[in-house]
């Protein structure tokens, strides 16, 4: 689905992504983990078109999409969410979802004047789809709530709902669990699993909650210092010496091993 070849992103002399290569298989839920500063979010931003790479290549379904802007990738089915949710706070939850699809007839003044029936028909269809999404995510009780009043976890569910309004092919989730209570995190996890199994969504997620990663993700890719360190199941990467050292540092790693003995 997504393949990254020797990707670099430099900010002056700082190499945030420094030769990363990886593959995200279609139909997978792939985890991306690593210590702070490993380059995970920068890698997401380059793949999703928010940043242009210094060098390297990104392919989507075998097609070179390196450096394409987010709106073009959006039309190809590649979407991303952010660690801090971006909602239209004064609009209702339902209205937030209805805003997502592009090319709506109501976006042009001409149609507003001369094709009001078409606009009403489109809005009715979008409203119906939004209602289905809210029911799927079990937040239909929030349909008419202003999005700005939602909790952090509810806003993350709303962001996930936006991806459903356009039938995304692959979704990049940036710390979907950050600041979310355990009950809502389980709801988010259930929704991700259902979207993957029932609707064929491919996911790649940055997450620090290893229990959450372990429940959802296989494989798990580990980054450190802008490069891919290793890849495997959650059990394999947690027992990998290089991963332990990347997270804990050599001295602390040896201290932990000595205490265990």
TrEMBL record:
ABC transporter domain mapped to chain residues: 2-250
Superkingdom classification of source: Bacteria
Single GO cellular component term: plasma membrane
Entry-linked InterPro entries: AAA+_ATPase, ABC_AA/LPS_Transport, ABC_transporter-like_ATP-bd, ABC_transporter-like_CS, BCA_ABC_TP_C, P-loop_NTPase
This protein's UniProt keywords: ATP-binding, Nucleotide-binding, Transport
Listed GO MF terms: ATP binding; ATP hydrolysis activity
Protein name: ABC transporter ATP-binding protein
Organism name: Harenicola maris
Lineage: Bacteria, Pseudomonadati, Pseudomonadota, Alphaproteobacteria, Rhodobacterales
């Amino acid at each position: 689905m997504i393949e990254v070849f020797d990707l670099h992103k430099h900010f002056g002399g700082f190499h945030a992504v420094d030769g990363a290569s990886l593959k995200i298989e279609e139909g997978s839920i792939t985890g991306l983990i690593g210590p702070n500063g490993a380059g995970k979010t920068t890698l997401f931003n380059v793949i999703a078109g928010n940043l242009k790479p210094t060098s390297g290549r990104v392919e989507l379904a075998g097609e070179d999409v390196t450096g394409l802007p987010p709106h073009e990738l959006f039309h190809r089915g590649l979407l991303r969410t952010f660690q801090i949710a971006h909602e239209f706070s004064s609009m209702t939850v339902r209205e937030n979802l209805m805003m997502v699809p592009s090319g709506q007839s109501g976006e042009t003044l001409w149609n507003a004047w001369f094709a009001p029936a078409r606009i009403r028909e489109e809005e009715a269809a979008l409203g119906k789809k939004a209602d289905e999404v809210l029911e799927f995510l079990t937040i239909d009780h929030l349909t008419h709530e202003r999005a700005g009043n939602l909790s952090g976890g509810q806003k993350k569910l709303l962001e996930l709902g936006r991806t459903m309004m356009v039938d995304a092919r692959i979704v990049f989730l940036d710390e979907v669990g950050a600041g979310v209570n355990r009950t809502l995190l389980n709801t988010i996890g259930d929704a991700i699993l259902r979207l993957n199994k029932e609707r064929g969504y491919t996911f790649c997620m940055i997450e620090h909650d290893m229990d959450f990663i372990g429940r959802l993700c296989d494989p798990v890719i580990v980054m450190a210092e802008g490069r891919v360190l290793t890849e495997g199941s959650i059990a394999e990467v947690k027992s990998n010496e290089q991963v332990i050292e990347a997270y804990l540092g050599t001295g602390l790693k040896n201290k932990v091993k000595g205490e265990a003995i």
